[in-house]
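Protocol step 4 of 5: obtain the predicted structure for the target chain.
Materials: sequence only (see below). No template structures provided, no constraints applied. The aim of this step is simply to have a reference model before the mutagenesis design in step 5. Sequence pasted as it appears in the construct record:
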Amino acid sequence: MTTMTANATPDSGQPGPQQIRRGRRTALLLFAVGFGPMIVASIMYVTGWLNPAGQTNHGTLIQPPVPVQQLNLETADGTPFSARFGIEQVDPQWHMLVVAQDCDARCERLLYLARQVNIALGKNAPRVSRSAWLGSFPADLAQRWPEEYRLMERLQRSGAGAWPDAINPASQPGILLIDPFGNVMMRYGPDHTGKQLLKDLQHLLKLSQIG
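Step 4 output (structure tokens):
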């Protein structure tokens, strides 16, 4: 009578412990190759590690980063905004999100800056998408939106939960920079310039192999 060993036999149909360990190592290697550069790039950028100029960023860092799920946003058809981020995305993108409780002149300036910065990225423009959540929507802006901001998606809130303190658009309108994994990592206010935002994005896209 044949004694069964701890490892499954080749014709048992079940992977043995060695095969399982090998599969796990392969999966970890694939993840490191695909997403390691993105993680390292983000760390280098926000900390200034290995940056000889000693300059990190112009925007305000959000520490710790806020998961995009906490924003409780969805698209016009009810799809969670968070669904477009994550390691499973075929075409991951960085994202600029304009948030404003009341869309006044400062808000419109940020909408304009996000549009112009996206255009100024040139060949890298497809790597960055943009959208907006506006608590109020002036009639004049609504009329101009299809022509001036037709490529900027409008989002809506999916619940009445409070905004994270680091983001709260009721205190000040802003542009949120979200990485391809869905982390809100940086904020730009009305005092920031388009040149500053563009420089940050160009640097991040140069370092990042994802998005």
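Step 4 remarks: Residues 56-207 form a domain with the Glutaredoxin fold (CATH 3.40.30.10). Residues 1-10, 47-54 have pLDDT under 50 and may be disordered.
Proceed to step 5.
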